[in-house]
Amino acid sequence: MPQQRTEANNVFLLIIVGILAWVVPGAGHYILKEKKRAIIIFITIVLTFVIGLYIGSIGVINPVNAKAWYLAQIMNSPVVAYLGHLTSTEPEKYRVFGRPNEIGQYYTSIAGLLNLLCVVNAVYMAHLRGTIQMPIKQSAKSKTGG
Amino acid sequence: MSPFVFLILANFVAPENIGTNVKSILWLLPLTVAITAVYKATKMPAITTASFIKEVLILSGSIIVFIIVIALTLFSLAWLITE
Predict the structure, then answer these.
(1) Which of A7, A49, A51, A73 is most buried, most CB within 10 Å of its CB?
(2) Which distant-in-sequence residues (6+ apart) come within 8 Å of A99 by Cβ?
(3) What are the Cα distances from residue A119, in Å, to A81, A139, B16, B66?
(4) A76 secondary structure, DSSP code
(5) Is A112 on the interface with B (CB under 8 A)?
(6) Inter-chain touch B38–A118, beta carbons under 8 Å
(7) Is B51 on the interface with A (CB under 8 A)?
C-alpha cells in the first residue's frame, strides 16, 4: 500500500511538472531544483516568442487560417490561446502578410516546439528521480527488515 | 496605463517592415542560437556559465557552417546544370 501511494505521488508529480512547464517555460525544471536550466529555458523561449511577435505582430497567431502553426505556437503557454482569441475575433485589425508573417511564425512556432522539448525533458527528469529514489527507499527498508 | 506602456504594446500589433529579399533570411540566424541554447540546456549534465556558452557557440557555429556548405553545394550544382 505505501508503495502504491508512492507511485501515485510520482504520477501526480509528473503531471504537475508537465503542466507547470507548459504554463511557464522553465517552471518544470525550476521545481526540480534545476534553477540554471530553468532560467536559460525561460529567457530563451520567452525572448524567441517575443521577437516573433515583434517581427510579425500578434497577427502571426492565427487559429483560423494557420492551424498547423497555431498547434506549435500553443505549446508556448496557454496565454497564446488568449492571443489567438484576440486575432480571430478581429482578423481585419491584426492582418499580416509576406516575410514578416513567415519569420514571425517561424520564431513563435519554434519557441513553442522548444518548450514542448523542455516539457518532455522536465517530465523525464522527474520520472528518473522517482524511479531512482524508490529502489533506494526499498533497499533501506529491506536492510532494516521493514 | 502610461503612454510608455502603450508605446511598447503598439510594437506588437503592427508588423515590422521586412522586404522579400535575400537579406531577410538573415533574421533566421538568431533562431539557430535559440534552438542551440535550449537544446544544450536540456542535454548538458552539469551547467556552468563558461562551458554552456562554449557549447552553444560551437554547436550554433557548426550548424551555420553546415548550412553554408549545403548552400554552396546546391548553388554549384545549379550553376553546373544551367551553364
Answers:
(1) A73
(2) B18, B19, B20, B24
(3) 18, 31, 31, 29
(4) S
(5) no
(6) yes
(7) no
A82 vs A49: CA distance, rounded Å: 15
Which residues from chain A sit within 8 angstroms of residue B14, using beta carbons? 57
Give the residue with greater pLDDT, A43 vs A87. Answer: A43
Q: Do B47 and A41 touch (CB under 8 A)?
A: no
Domain boundaries, chain B: 19-82
Task: Residue A131: count other Cβ atoms within 10 Å of its Cβ.
Answer: 10
Give the Cα separation of A80 and A70 in Å (integer). Answer: 9
Q: Provide the 8-state DSSP code for A95.
A: -
Q: What is the maximum span of chain B, computed from C-alpha positions, in angstroms?
A: 62
Q: Each residue of A9-58: pLDDT tens digit?
A: 788 889 999 999 999 999 999 999 999 999 999 999 999 999 999 998 88
- 3-state helix/strand/coil string of chain B: CCHHHHHHHHCCCCCCCCCCCHHHHHHHHHHHHHHHHHHHHHHCCCCCHHHHHHHHHHHHHHHHHHHHHHHHHHHHHHHHHHC
CA distance B75 to chain A (A): 23
Element (H, E) at A123: helix A98-144
Do B18 and A100 make contact, defined as CB atoms within 8 angstroms? yes
**Pick from B28, B13, B23, B22: nearest CA to A96:** B13
Would you say A86 and A50 are in contact if contact means Cβ atoms under 8 Å apart?
Answer: no
Identify residue B57 by its one-letter amino acid code.
Answer: L
**Chain A residues lying within 8 Å of B26, measured CB to CB:** none
